[in-house]
Amino acid sequence: MGLSRTYLSDTQTHISATAAGTAGLFCALLRYYLTGRLTEGSDVYSFGVVLLEAATGEPPMVPGHGHIVQRVKQRIATTGDIGSVADSRLGGAYDVSSMWKVVDTAMACTLDAGPGDGRPTMADVVAQLKDSLALEDARENDRNVPVRALRSDDEDFLSSGPSAR
């Protein structure tokens, strides 16, 4: 959703202000058709829908089950468990805090509000996604650290317990 830019060459571009997208981007499309204007807010909303698609592995609209934003809200309210939202094909192979950050960011992007809608800016979204990626990278790095045999000087470390991250 939003402006579509096609590069004809390195120096020439064509910008189309025609809305494009799926029914799952309904809020942004509706605002476009009502006002004839595309805004950063509509782009942020659309990006939030795409984030939810990526996190859940589901399409934006499921006949008889509604829009992805409502489905995710309902699952979170019902279970409070990110596992009920995350794409089951991931098999739980993700950092829980990272997945929460992605879903929380997507939900903030899809707030249903008007002008000055309280949605984050794309710069804010990028910062949140970088934080999420850092959490996931840390999980991957922890998993790749080889396990070594404990030595007697490791007892002090073991008796102090794990440190908080």
Describe this structure in words.
The chain has a single domain (24-143), classed as Transferase(Phosphotransferase) domain 1 (Transferase(Phosphotransferase), domain 1, Orthogonal Bundle). It is 50% helix and 7% strand. It has helices at residues 26-35, 40-56, 68-79, 96-109, 122-144, 155-160; strands at 4-7, 13-16, 61-62, 66-67. The protein has a two-stranded antiparallel ribbon. Strands 3-4 form a two-stranded antiparallel sheet. Strand 3 and strand 4 (66-67) form a beta hairpin. Helix 1 runs antiparallel to helix 2 (40-56), helix 2 packs antiparallel against helix 4 and helix 4 (96-109) runs antiparallel to helix 5. The longest helix has 23 residues, at 122-144. The radius of gyration is 21 Å and the shape is globular.
